[in-house]
Amino acid sequence: MVKLVFMPKLHLSTLINAPIELVFDLARSIDLHMLSLEHTNEKAVAGRMTGLVEIGETVTWEAKHLGFTQQLTSQITDVEPHHYFADELKKGIFKDFKHEHFFEKQEDGQTLMKDIFDYTSPLGILGSLADFLFLAKYMTNLLQQRNMALKQIAENGKWKSLPGMEIHLHNEAV
Prior knowledge:
The chain is of the alpha+beta class. It has helices at 20-27, 30-36, 124-156, 166-173, and strands spanning 9-16, 43-47, 58-65, 68-80, 84-91, 96-105, 111-120.
């Protein structure tokens, strides 16, 4: 029996003109996440609902994607401060996913943020067909939009008003 399965593993890289500590915390910001995906009405509805998500914490997101309102719960499963964190699906439409976030300080003071989003769609061969036809592109575009919003907020100073970012105001003044 031949089994045809398309299992996407999305890779993105974003260069951000901001310190690694700031970029790391912005990537963990519930509030920035909601701002970056306003067009989907993304909001945290359970678990951590504002500020910076920490290891072991869960967030339940509700948003409208592809015409359907959905809920998804993820948990922060690994954190290496300022260099790496991972979140994994606990409940939602996907069969599973793991989103790894990597941060590298560049010689010029910028930060290279890398995402690896590894997921499996539900519905077996039908899910694989959806991935191939449109879902992988949709997810890539969604992650790119989030990353561009993070980059813009990190570089233009609007991060200063986000909950949980107070420590960076102190660091900026030093």
